[in-house]
Every structure is written in C-alpha cells, then in structure tokens.
Amino acid sequence: MGHEVQGGLAIGLVIAATVLIGAFGLRLSRTTSDFYVASRSVSPVWNASAISGEYLSAASFLGVAGLILTYGADMLWFPVGYTAGYLVLLVSVAAPLRRSGAYTLSDFAEARLESRTVRQVSSIFVVTIGWLYLLPQFVGAGLTVQLATGAPGWVGGLLVAAVVVFSVATGGMRSITFVQAFQYWLKLSAIAVPVLFLVLAWRADGMPTPGDGPPTFADRTPVEVPADLRFDVVEPVRVLVNGVLDGQRYVGEPVVLGRGSHEVGEGALLTFPAGSTVPHAATVEASDNASWARPLTAVGDRDHPVYSTYSLILALFFGTMGLPHVLVRFYTNPDGRTARRTTAFVLALLGVFYLFPTVYGALARLYTPDLLLTGRTDTAVLLLPERLIAGTGGQLLTALLTAGAFAAFLSTSSGLTVSVAGVLAQDVLRGSVRDFRVAAVLAVAVPFALSLWARSLSIADIVGLAFAVAASSFCPLLVLGIWWRRLTSTGAAAGLLVGGGLATAAVTATVGGVDRGGWTGALLAQPAAWTVPVAFLVMVVVSRRTPGRLPPHVGRTMVRLHAPESIAVPERRVD
Amino acid sequence: MSNTIEPDSDRLVTVQNSEEFAELRRKFRGFAFPMTVVFLAWYLLYVLMSGYARDFMGYQLLGNINVGYVFGLLQFASTFLIAYFYERHMDNKVDPLAARIRSQLEGGQQR
C-alpha cells in the first residue's frame, strides 16, 4: 500500500520544514520583545503571508468543503465571512490598535481602561476563544493522519500538539512569522494544484452535475465504516454487508435496508449498487440536490436559515478582530500605514485561497457522497484526488493535500498557542520566557484532551462558534475602546462578561448536543445576532451609569490611538 | 526610530483638543462608519434576496450558473473594492492631515 508511505512522508516533510525554519528564526530571536512580537520588523508582504498562513486553519482547508458537500450553497458564507472579517478589522480597528502598542488583547484592555479586572476578564476570553479554536485543529489532524496512515485518531492531534509546543516554546514569535509565511504558500499550492487536475478529470468524466434528487452513488460503491455509526436510510436499498449491521453479523450477504434508522459496527463493509440513494449519518442531515444548490432552504436540522445565515455572517465579520492570534500580528508592522497595507494584502491572499475549497465541496457532492453516510465529511478534500484520478497521480495529489492540511493545523495551532500561552504566562504565571514555555504546554493540553471526545463535530462549525464568542466579547471592547472615549472600566467588564458569557453558554449548549431544531436551537447554534448587540448595549449603558470609572488617562490614550505613530506618546508602564 | 519626538503632556492635551485632531478623527470615521453600514446592508440584501426572491436568484444565466452565484461573486468583489477605496481615502485624506499635525508638534518641540 503505497499511499500510507506517501501520506506519512508528506506529513514528515511539513513537520521537518516547520521545525527547521523555526530553528533558523530561533537564532534571530533574542529579547522578550522579539519572543512575543518579532521586534516589529517584518515587511508587509511577509507579514501578510504570515497572517494568512496563520489564519487558514483546518476549517478553511478541510471544513468549508465538508460543509458545502453536506449543506450546499449557504455554506459559501464561511469563506466570504472569513475574508470580509479582515475588511471590518482593517477599516475599524487595525491602525489604532497597532498604535496602542500592546502585545495581546489583554494588554490593550488594560492600557485603554487602566484596570486589572478588565485585563483579567479579557484574559479569560482570550483563553476560551483560543481553546475553542485549537480544538478543531486537533480533530482535523486526527482525521488526516488516520486517513493518510491508518493510525488511530488521537495520533494526529498529539503530533500537532508536540510540534507546536516545541516550535513555540523554542522560537517564540520571530521564528513563527517565517514558518507561517512559508505555510501560506504551501497551503495555497497544495489546494490549487490538485484543483486543475480534478477539474480536468471531471471534464473527461463528461461534466456530470448533481441533478435535483437526493445524492446518489454514481457507481457500485463499497463503503468501509470507520467507527460505530447510526445512520438513516432515505430510500430502501439492497446492499452487500460484511460485518455487524443492526446487531447481526453478516459475511458478504445481501440485505435490504428499510427506510429509517440503522446501526452498523466499526470496520463493516457495505457495498451499495450503482444509482442507489445515499443514506446519511445521524449527525449529518443532508439535503436533496435541488435544495443543496439553492441558498436558504433550511437543510436538515438547520431551521430558520435567514436568521442563522445572517447571524453567522455577523459572527464572522465581527469575530475576526477578536481572535487572539490575528490581532497580535498587527504589532509586527512598523506603523499604522504598513498595518493597513498588510491587511489589504491579506484580503487578496485569502480571497485567492478561498476560491478553491468551494470547488472541492461541489465535486465532493458528486464523487464522495459516501461521506454523508460515514459522517466524515471533513475528509472530502483529501479523498477526492484518488476518487477521480487513478494510480500514482491521484496518490501524489493526495500526499500534496495531506501536506497542505498539516500545514494548516500547524500554522493555526502555533499562532493560537503563542497568544494563549502569552496570556497565560503574563496573567497566571510570572511572565518570564521560562513561564512562557510552561504556558505553551498548558495552552495545547486542554484542547487536545477535549478533541479526543469531540471527534464527531464539524470542524468549520466549531470554528464558527469561536468567532461568535470573539464577536460578542472583543469586538465591542475594541470598537468602543477605540472610538468612544466615555467607555468606563466597569462598562467594559460588564459587556465582556455578559456578551462573551452568553455566547460561551450558547456554544457550550450546542457542542454539548442540544437539539439544533426550532427557534431555541437556531438561537443557540448561531448566537452572534443577539449576543453582539447585547454586549454593545451593556457596555454603553453601564458606562453611562458609571461615569466615575472613566480611566484617568483616557485623553492621552485616545491621542496615542489616533495620532500618527511618529508622535510618540509616552507609554504608561503597566507592570 | 530616530525621528520620533516625545512631546510633553501639555502639548498632547493641546493636540487632543485641537481642531486638526478632531478633523483627523472625523475624516476617518466619516469614511469608516458609513462604509461599514453600507457593506453590512449589501450583504444583508444578498441574504434576504436568497431567502425571499428565490425565482430571481435561481434564474439560470448560463448553464448551471444562476443570478445567485453571480451575486455571490459580486459580494466577494465588493470586499476588495471597499478595501481599495479605504486605502485610497487614508492615503489621500487622512495621512496628509496626520503629517500636518505631526509637523506642528515638531515645530513646537524645537521651540
């Protein structure tokens, strides 16, 4: 079996490159300031590549295509929102934030509001959002390694965790910048090159389209079940079963699956005849092809599509600025003007990348419908080449995609780990470089442990929830903190706790498995549309009620945020 | 940063209360806030059209490509367009003003 060797080799190469480039950067990192923010001496194009490299996570590389495969057109909002979030960030907060001179979101909160309490509340949300975002990276790594090498699901996550702790703990931010920039270009090539071949293969196949009915198997298809599974049959179908089905063991015998719910054991092989309707996993409620191609058709258990879609858009647009690993990058620009330039480059780099997952998602509907049955829709990107292109060509493309996916896990996880560890080191430990290393281990250990039981969750969905929490906590803090001088420390703390707290509660309920149906389900699954306004409202109302808690140096801080950086406003030391 | 100046607090307060500084912030907000509203509305329009003007959005222009997809691509394009306008606005309107405030401060600094 050649493809296991190739998959393992691809993963090994990406890890080796990450560690080597990290080690190269290591020699350049000297001081604590170097360690956290790369001495603010990185050019806009490098920095934009690094930001994009860090930003394009498992959700972008694997998750978006998986959601498009299952739910269709509505999911196009994920790539649009991920990109447009940068526009909101650029226009509303990028330059002032850069001028604030803080290293982390918590630093910004403390510098602007001059309050330890606000700082601590911010730190709690930095860690919450960071963990929520790291979790799907480990899930994705598990799936990818399992698919590439046949290793158990936890191996991939552990591998990523180990590499990230090593490179973050030894290199800090300086080396990370180079690693991230390299990984953007690796990811772009890894996702773009196979598309050319896949589209050619699709043309050679007579350019089939999904049609209007439910998704079907084009050819006779054997499906190996990767883990115990409950699934729903939409149309009765006669399959060959090898393994345990509905509590009975079969050895290559034909069985008629009636409409309704069935259970199948791990390792079973179900062979479906050509043209039969694809059953779907209990966790994945797939749509028929007609509503798949149309937006806002309330697919499966996703009710109230207009509300849900707009809420998702709000979360993605306003959440980007509140992601801990995104923000810290703006401090690596020498001034506000380069910060703007960098963001414009980022928009272009992200826009180019996001054209591709859509193509994978659409092709997956045709060529990997069995993933709807196994529920492993996040692996669609990795499976497509071998389904469309026979022999070594397909295997090489799979290896390339595996490498790209791994680059995605590594880069996003490193960036997040730097940020979460930075906050943990400064606010929980004492802030030395040694503490930073201990904090790096803490930062990955918790989400890795969570990833072991969260395997059935969709990667892009969890990332969407992280955005919702960020939009409900840091977006109001940043926007009001920068643009409204009457924001008080009490108001900020109250808004963070109420907005971020409500969003976190909604997210916990969703991840914990609360029914997504009906209005309650929709409001909990996509909380941003109500939690973001609530957070703003609480901040404004409480600030108005507590004018006495206005930070004493607010005038100076505002000049610092809004004046061109060449006027150095003396920094208040905050330690 | 060799050309950095460090004005004392009095001068900072003067800057902060000055007409120019107010103008600087006004120029920035005057662009950023309306633009954010316009583009959120533009995205909302797309969502609403997809929900309630199905026939229009589903109208097939060419093969499988319908109005909805073209509209979707336009959303993407508009993102870049706004970024471009923003960049131009900042370069032409805001940065020169910022530079003027700076040179005034520097002038005051040299006494």
Report on the structure:
The complex is a heterodimer of chains A (575) and B (111). Chain A is an alpha+beta fold. Chain A has 2 domains: 373 residues, Up-down Bundle (Sodium/glucose cotransporter), CATH 1.20.1730; 57 residues, no CATH class. Chain B is mostly helical. The longest helix of chain B has 44 residues. Chain B is elongated and about 65 Å long. Chain B has one domain. A two-stranded antiparallel ribbon of chain B has the order 1-2.
DSSP helix fraction of chain A: 55-70%
Rounded to an integer in angstroms, the radius of gyration calculated over CA atoms of chain A is 24 Å
Question: How is the main sheet of chain B built?
Answer: 2 strands, antiparallel
Distance between the termini of chain B: 21 Å
Poorly predicted segments of chain A: 29-39, 567-575
Structural key phrases:
heterodimer, A: 575 residues, alpha+beta, Sodium/glucose cotransporter, 2 domains, 3-stranded antiparallel sheet, B: 111 residues, mainly alpha
Structure in a nutshell:
The complex is a heterodimer of chains A (575) and B (111). Chain A has 22 helices and seven strands.
Secondary structure blueprint with pairings:
The complex is a heterodimer of chains A (575) and B (111).
Chain A: H1 2-26, H2 32-37, H3 44-55, H4 58-71, H5 77-92, H6 94-100, H7 105-113, H8 116-149, H9 153-204, E1 221-224, E2 229-233, E3 237-245, E4 248-257, E5 260-264, E6 269-272, E7 280-281, H10 289-293, H11 305-319, H12 324-327, H13 336-367, H14 370-374, H15 380-388, H16 391-427, H17 433-451, H18 459-483, H19 489-511, H20 518-525, H21 528-545, H22 554-562
Antiparallel strand pairs in A: 1-6, 2-5, 2-7, 3-4, 3-6
Chain B: H1 9-17, H2 19-52, H3 54-58, E1 60-62, E2 65-66, H4 67-110
Antiparallel strand pairs in B: 1-2
